[in-house]
């Protein structure tokens, strides 16, 4: 089975580019080939006009890599960890300490890496990838397994990294993450890129339903179906009464006339809808 099959894309300088897809889509393999950690069976890869394979020492100072699984030296503190990484690139200890400030870990400098929370460990991993001031940063599912608050905090850090002028290539299986952070995304599944472009452009190009939900019990299912137009879908799971419609305005007006707007939520198309449209199946996180 091919992990990656004919993947082609370009990333512009200063861009925040996302490779988006479920687990097993081929995202990590693609990233490892680009980073020079794995040899491709065929095809070519260029970073700053140079090939990363065989391992290219000229590229190492210009790229930073945060792997999917972080591994730190045992019994070293956060400060000792990042200073060790800095020494590999000839970066001064003072600059390493400043990077702890950048990622919000200054107060954890004396804490052993194994005592850091999941979000703090990810921040330290990213700090180690940035400590030598690379122009291009690869981040492989940096928010995987983090709680919602830690994810959002890390998003702010990633935005700041990009605003500093660094090019960021991110893999993720979180649709909302890619939609929030990335200038462009490549949607990938089964080793192939299905579609690429700006998230908003991909969503706008999808002829999708608008999803409207209200509290269950405000209308009976029979009444709701009577309000629905041609092509509308109506379901009631006992918690929410949900409409999927290509024409939300008349339906919303009808609900308002019946004072049935309790718990109203309106959702347009998202990247997840784009994925479902492209693959014809439910998204697998």
Automatic annotation (TrEMBL):
Pfam family, one: ABC_tran
Span of domain ABC transporter: 1-215
GO molecular function list: ATP binding; ATP hydrolysis activity
Record membrane topology: Peripheral membrane protein
BP GO annotations: response to antibiotic
ATP-binding is among the record's keywords: yes
Localisation per UniProt entry: Cell membrane
Top-rank lineage group of the source organism: Bacteria
UniProt keyword annotations, A-Z: Antibiotic resistance, ATP-binding, Cell membrane, Membrane, Nucleotide-binding, Translocase, Transport
Subcellular location, principal: membrane
One GO cellular component term noted in the UniProt record for this chain: plasma membrane
Gene3D superfamilies: P-loop containing nucleotide triphosphate hydrolases
KW Cell wall biogenesis/degradation (keyword) present: no
InterPro entries xrefs: AAA+_ATPase, ABC_transporter-like_ATP-bd, ABC_transporter-like_CS, ABC_transporter_ATP-binding, P-loop_NTPase
Family from the record: Belongs to the ABC transporter superfamily.
Name assigned to this protein: ABC transporter ATP-binding protein
């Amino acid at each position: 089975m091919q992990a990656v099959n004919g993947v082609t894309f370009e990333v512009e300088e200063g861009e925040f580019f996302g490779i988006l897809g479920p687990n097993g889509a081929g995202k990590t393999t693609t990233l490892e080939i680009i980073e020079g950690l794995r040899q491709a069976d065929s095809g070519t890869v260029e970073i700053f006009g140079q090939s990363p394979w065989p391992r290219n020492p000229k590229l190492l100072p210009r790229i930073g890599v945060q792997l999917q699984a972080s591994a730190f030296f045992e019994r070293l503190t956060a400060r000792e960890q990042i200073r060790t990484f800095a020494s590999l690139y000839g970066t001064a200890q003072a600059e390493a300490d400043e990077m702890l400030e950048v990622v919000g870990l200054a107060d954890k400098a004396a804490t052993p890496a194994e005592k850091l929370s999941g979000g703090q460990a990810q921040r330290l991993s990213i700090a180690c990838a940035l400590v030598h001031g690379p122009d291009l940063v690869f981040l492989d599912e940096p928010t995987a397994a983090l709680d919602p608050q830690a994810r959002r905090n890390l998003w702010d850090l990633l935005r700041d990294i990009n605003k500093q002028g660094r090019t960021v290539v991110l893999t993720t299986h979180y649709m909302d993450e890619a939609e929030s952070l990335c200038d462009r995304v490549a949607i990938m599944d089964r080793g192939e890129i299905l579609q690429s472009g700006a998230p908003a452009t991909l969503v706008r190009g999808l002829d999708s339903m608008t999803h409207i939900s209200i509290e269950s019990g405000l209308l009976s299912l029979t009444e709701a179906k009577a309000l629905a137009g041609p092509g509308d879908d109506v379901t009631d799971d006992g918690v929410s009464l949900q409409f999927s419609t290509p024409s939300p305005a008349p339906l919303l007006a009808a609900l308002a006339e019946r004072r049935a707007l309790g718990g109203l939520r309106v959702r347009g198309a998202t990247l997840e809808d784009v994925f479902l449209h492209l693959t014809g199946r439910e998204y697998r996180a």
